[in-house]
Amino acid sequence: MxxxxxxxxxxxxDVQGGTPVVRGTRIPLTTVLRxxxxxxxxxxxxAELPTLTPGxxxxxxxxxxxxxxxxxxxxAAG
Length: 78
What we know:
This protein is mainly alpha-helical. 37% of the residues lie in helices and 5% in strands. The longest helix is centred in the last third of the chain and has 13 residues, at 54-66. It contains 3 helices and 2 strands; from the N terminus they run ββααα. A two-stranded antiparallel sheet has the order 1-2. It is globular, with a radius of gyration of 12 Å.
C-alpha cells in the first residue's frame, strides 16, 4: 500500500502544510501518536478528537510503525 492508496492517511499541500493527516480530517498523525504515547486508549482519543474512529487511531499507529518518516511532523528548513 502506498500513501496515495492508504485509506487512513493523506498528505495534501493545502492541508496542514503537507503534514500527514488522518484522511478526511485536518488531524496530523503526530497528534494521534502523542495521545497514544501519553497513554490514551483509542476510545479516549476519539473522545478528545470526535472526528476519529477507534479504527482510524489503530490505523495511524500501524501506519507510523511501517512508515516512520511519514508519521513525523514536518520541520521547516532554516
